[in-house]
Amino acid sequence: MFMENQNQLCNFDIVTLKRNNMTTLKVGDTAPNFESVDEKGNAVKLSDYAGKKLVLFFYPKASTPGCTAEACDLRDNYQTFLAKGYDVLGVSADSAKRQQNFIDKNELPFPLLADEDKEVINAFGVWGPKKFMGREYDGIHRTTFVIDEKGVIEDVITKVKTKEHANQILSK
Length: 172
Prior knowledge:
The protein is an alpha/beta fold. It has helices at 2-20, 65-76, 78-83, 96-106, 119-123, 165-170, and strands spanning 35-37, 43-45, 53-58, 86-92, 112-114, 127-132, 135-140, 143-147, 153-157. The chain has 6 helices and 9 strands, in the order αβββααβαβαββββα. The strands form 3 sheets. Strands 5-4-3-8-9 form a 5-stranded mixed beta sheet. Residues 1-21 have low confidence and may be disordered.
């Protein structure tokens, strides 16, 4: 009986730790510094965006319906983002090749990080347990961070509306 309860406790602790790994970043926090590679293999760092506002959006998987809707909504409003002083950068754990295919297929005008080692994903705390069709697994939680010119988080959007995401960002 004791061992059974101890195992349940250990499993609970692991689940709790995973759940607590979700983003604790909030408005006013300094965005974590990062360096990763984009779809072309170019190094991209947060410091590359110093002096600019940045929309940093994390999405689960390139070329899936929700991720395509989100990226295309941002694409369709890209000129508005630029006019308001924002750059746009997407991040998923997909390979550079898959990211490039996603860009080509949907004519995306912004770079996508191929964060296969999940360093950026983990730094922003968007990797964790998810449920889909009754199955629980670990994955990227669709989250967007709006970062100001000084690297400070202006907004964190965790309830992303994929078809209206640009409006969620720009209406604040």
